[in-house]
Specification:
It contains seven helices and seven strands, in the order E-H-H-E-E-H-H-H-E-H-E-H-E-E. By secondary structure, the protein is α+β, with helices and mostly antiparallel strands. The protein has one domain (11-214): Gcn5-related N-acetyltransferase (GNAT) (Aminopeptidase, 3-Layer(aba) Sandwich), CATH 3.40.630. The radius of gyration is 17 Å and the shape is globular. One of its GO terms (molecular function) is acyltransferase activity, transferring groups other than amino-acyl groups.
């Protein structure tokens, strides 16, 4: 798919650091098993600080965004990931989390007005988890994908994953990737299964892998 906009239709382009605020917003608006998580948070930026924004800034990452010219070139969806998960994690530990956690105190309950969801993500800022070794053994590459609800069920998820597969295969020489999803999001699981993803043995529930030959 071309990165140029010649038909005024939604198109895909590489992610840019300047996309960071809208990546955060989309992450919040899809953060409750695909639906909005706004009502779960007092500090709505937290989920995107963990799962979206760092991929626009740190080494060993990649990403592509959906852009809608009809909305002033607004970003309406994304696929973000790391082609080297362990390298990404180290940079996040050294460079990202120390900076973004500065406005939140620890332990999480000391932040006035913090919801249970807020507390969970503040804890992640201070104690970032490592990716499951079984997943990294399967592939060094992982990804996250989120699309605003009004753009879902239109084939964009497949197109975004196709772009990521193309990048990882052709530019990074990889043959597979993995992702983690909320086990409660049955619709997402069915979507990934249709694309060839399979549950990874030995990894936490909700961890799915894709062999590019099956895509």
């Amino acid at each position: 798919m071309s990165d140029t906009n010649s038909s005024k239709a939604v198109y895909i382009r590489p992610v840019r650091p300047a996309d960071s605020p809208v990546l955060n917003r989309i992450c919040l608006l899809t953060g409750n098993a695909g639906q909005s998580a706004e009502h779960l948070h007092t500090f709505g930026e937290l989920i995107g600080l963990v799962y979206a924004e760092p991929y626009a800034h740190l080494p060993a990452t990649f990403g592509f965004v959906m852009v809608d010219p009809a909305k002033g070139d607004e970003v309406v969806g994304y696929i973000l990931g790391a082609y080297d998960t362990r390298t990404y994690e180290q940079h996040a530990l050294d460079e990202w989390f120390p900076r973004v956690r500065a406005k939140y105190s620890y332990p999480p309950e000391t932040n006035e007005g913090a919801t249970e969801a807020d507390k969970r993500y503040i804890n992640i800022l201070y104690n970032p988890p490592s990716a499951p070794q079984a997943a990294v053994d399967y592939s060094p590459a992982h990804l996250h994908i989120d699309i605003l609800p009004e753009y879902q069920r239109q084939g964009w998820g497949r197109k975004l994953i196709a772009r990521a597969v193309e990048y990882l295969r052709d530019e990074r020489g990889l043959t597979n990737l993995w992702l983690g999803l909320d086990p409660k999001n049955e619709g997402a699981k069915r979507f990934y299964e249709r694309l060839g993803f399979k549950e990874l043995q030995g990894a936490p529930v909700g961890t799915m892998g894709l062999d590019f030959a099956d895509f």
